[in-house]
Design brief:
The chain has 304 residues and is of the alpha+beta class. Helices cover 53% and strands 22% of the residues. The protein is built from 4 helices and 9 strands; from the N terminus they run ααααβββββββββ. The chain is elongated, with a radius of gyration of 40 Å.
């Protein structure tokens, strides 16, 4: 039997112990790394969960604000069909926005910021409605109070009744006259093929009537169609293939051209072109500008 060298045996034992110690250190290092990674992943999961929770809270808050705005819109009303129609449109927009918010994931931050902007816009629109309704109600209350006072005084005597009846008629006439849309700055210009203003009849390719519908808080809001009647030097109404007509003072009238604009009580600048007229002669051209309620004014153009 071969005799084992004790020195060699001890060395192998020491090497085995060193390998075991190294392996133990590696295992401990790996365990430490795993523990750190687990901590990082846990922290990241917590952060994500907290972010999602915060976004859900923001979405809920935005939804509650929209519902509150919807309730505010529900309380608004007026005695004017135009305003009521506009309110109905805004109410529909609020309801639609609430549904979009509910269907959108809270983590879609771009959409949520867009909805916040739309909420701000709808709030601004509602404040405008409130101011407009209060203004009209104040005016109506004043007119109603004036009319009621006039009727009470009219009962005192026949003479006073006659005088006050005239005052009432005058007030009603002023209100009716004040609600009519008016215009200013009416002018008639001719343009050549290069889109430059000209007064040469031989170079005219189209006419432009420019004007401004002036501000009027009493006038009805909504679409307004403005008509022009352009007369040549012989008084003939110029028309093209797009013939149009309108009713004014119970009479049907031919128009040279027309354009519809959205009138909200504020000043509106506009222009109406007359195209496709075969030729122009020298002389003075006159444009008459109308709505179906009134003659807004006239202007002349001298072509040479």
């Amino acid at each position: 039997m071969e005799e084992i060298d004790p020195i060699l045996a001890r060395r192998e034992k020491e090497e085995q112990a060193a390998r075991e110690k190294t392996m133990k250190n590696v295992m401990m290092a790996l365990a430490a790394v795993a523990l750190v990674l687990a901590g990082i992943l846990g922290y990241m999961w917590y952060q994500k969960s907290q972010l999602v929770k915060d976004l859900e809270i923001e979405k809920q808050d935005l939804t509650e604000q929209m519902v509150a705005l919807q309730q505010d819109y529900a309380t608004l009303s007026s005695d004017y069909d135009t305003i009521n129609s506009q309110l109905d449109t805004s109410r529909a927009e609020v309801a639609e926005l609430i549904e979009r918010i509910k269907k959108t994931d809270a983590t879609n931050r771009a959409k949520m910021r867009q909805y916040e902007k739309e909420l701000g816009t709808l709030r601004t629109i509602m404040r405008g409605y409130i101011v407009q309704i209060d203004s009209l109600n104040t005016l109506n209350h004043k007119l109603t109070a004036d009319a009621a006072a006039a009727r009470r005084e009219a009962a005192e005597s026949r003479k006073a009744n006659e005088q006050l009846s005239q005052q009432i008629e005058s007030l009603e006439g002023q209100v009716a006259a004040g609600s009519v849309i008016k215009a200013r700055g009416i002018r008639l210009e001719a343009y050549n093929a290069s889109e430059k203003v000209t007064d040469r009849s031989s170079r005219v390719v189209r006419l432009l009537t420019s004007l401004s519908l002036v501000e009027n808080e009493l006038a009805p809001r909504g679409p307004v169609r403005v008509y022009i009647r352009v007369k040549d030097p012989d008084g003939v109404i110029l028309t093209n293939s797009v013939r149009t007509s309108f009713t004014f003072g119970g009479e049907s009238m031919v128009a040279s051209a027309s354009r519809e604009v959205d009138y909200e009580g504020r000043e509106v600048e506009m222009g109406i072109y007359l195209n496709d007229i075969e030729s122009y002669v020298k002389g003075i051209y006159t444009v008459e500008v109308y709505t179906e309620q009134s003659l807004l004014g006239t202007a002349d153009l001298n072509l040479r």
